[in-house]
Design goal:
The protein contains 17 helices and 10 strands. It is globular and about 60 Å long. An 8-stranded parallel sheet has the order 1-2-3-4-5-6-9-10, with helices on both faces. Helices cover 49% and strands 15% of the residues. 46% of the residues are buried. The protein has 379 residues and is α/β, with parallel strands linked by helices. The protein has one domain (3-371): Metal-dependent hydrolases (TIM Barrel, Alpha-Beta Barrel). One of its GO terms (cellular component) is cytosol. Pfam families: A_deaminase. Its cofactor is Zn(2+).
Length: 379
């Protein structure tokens, strides 16, 4: 076993937290093949390893259209209660196998109605699968808890209906609300009334922002979306000005120069000072072009990701996978990649777990119990 493999094995055994993981982007390749055969949906291949490689290659192509091709396949097979339940159960089992002890799974029920299900029936089917998965993990002496984040698709304009759906199921597995889909042209201000309704009913929200669009998207998520967390959020770095040179000892940024002075604009200041959690997904942020949009580097690498800069400046950052099938990643692998890119040890990687659990939509007592469990294990 190589040193890297040994480090990943160590990380896999440690308790971790996942706050940004899409259900329809995280199917097992074999499950996708099985379900596609059942419903008569054509896939590029019926070989699970080859299918995974096609998705990974498309994700790494730099072409967002190719990246998104996978979702046409996954949602096509997730149109029945039985299939939703299976996908949700396996989702939990796969996370537990990777050492995740708490997850908030996001998905958009409005994308799963083609088979005749109602919105409520889709949520109930996913919750049944999540419950099945938790029971299976516990039967093997494991520990995991999972909450649903109900997403509304920005381009569909069904936010008011989806908010009411989330509220109806808040005591039956739903822990929060999200908006997903294209950022540009679909700002949170379009759904201001829906976010007000959530605030009135005190159901928390996270908002996809600062991934496919820039700083104004982040501002809109905070102001109009009343976001407690930012989905990705890395383009808040557009509001940070660095002056660098050889004089200082502190290294920060994309490979290189020593920091002399940092100036935070009003949005970045608000995000840092209020400790608004950033749900970063390092590999996905590279694949979707979010890092290139920040750096201007067409061939962006993980070392160009603003993650380390944000962490060193005191931003509240977490680590996520976004879409495990599509990107071909695990949470363990993402942590190991960050450790290699930025020379992190276990102490830093533990910080990201505590950041995430404290920013989760669990209740205070539950967060405290899980945080203590995580700290004890990582120390």
């Amino acid at each position: 076993m190589s040193t890297l493999d040994g480090f990943q094995a160590q990380l896999r055994a440690l308790p971790k937290v996942s706050l940004h993981d899409h259900l329809d982007g995280s199917l097992r390749p074999q499950t996708l093949i099985d379900l596609a055969a059942e419903v008569g949906h054509e896939l590029p291949t019926a070989d699970p390893e080859a299918l995974q490689e096609i998705f990974r290659t498309n994700a790494n192509s730099g072409d967002l259209v190719k990246y998104l091709e996978a979702f046409a396949h996954t949602t096509a097979v997730m149109q029945s209660a039985e299939n939703l339940r299976r996908v949700a159960r396996e989702y939990v089992e796969d996370l537990a196998a990777d050492g995740v002890v708490y997850s908030e799974v996001r998905w958009a029920p409005e994308q799963h109605l083609a088979g005749g299900l109602t919105l409520d029936e889709t949520v109930e089917a996913v919750q049944a699968g999540l419950n099945d998965g938790v029971e299976a993990v516990e039967a093997n002496d494991g520990v995991i808890a999972v909450g649903q984040l109900i997403s509304a698709m920005r381009q569909a304009d069904h936010a008011e209906e989806i908010v009411e759906l989330a509220l109806r199921h808040r005591d039956a597995g739903v822990v929060g609300f999200d908006i997903a889909g294209p950022e540009a042209g679909f700002p949170p201000s379009r759904f201001a009334a829906s976010f007000t309704r959530l605030a009135e009913q005190m159901l928390p929200a996270t908002v996809h922002a600062g991934e496919a669009d820039g700083l104004e998207s982040v501002r809109g998520a905070l102001v109009d979306g009343r976001a407690q967390r930012l989905g990705h959020g890395i383009r808040v770095a557009e509001d940070i000005t660095l002056t660098s040179g050889p004089e200082s000892r502190s290294k920060i940024g994309d490979g290189g120069e020593d920091l002399i002075e940092v100036e935070l604009g009003p949005v970045a200041t608000w995000v840092r000072d209020r400790q608004i959690h950033l749900e970063t997904s390092p590999t996905s942020n590279l694949q979707t072009g979010a890092v290139s949009a920040l750096t201007g580097k067409t061939e962006a690498e993980l070392a160009h990701h603003p993650f380390d800069m944000l962490y060193q400046l005191g931003f509240n950052v977490g680590v996520n996978t976004d879409n495990r099938l599509v990107s071909g990643v695990t949470l363990t692998g993402e942590l190991a990649a960050l450790a290699e890119a930025f020379d992190y040890g276990l102490a830093e990687l533990a910080d990201f777990q505590i950041n995430a659990i404290e920013a989760s939509f669990l209740g205070y007592e539950e967060r405290e119990v899980l945080a203590a469990h995580i700290l004890e294990a990582w120390q």
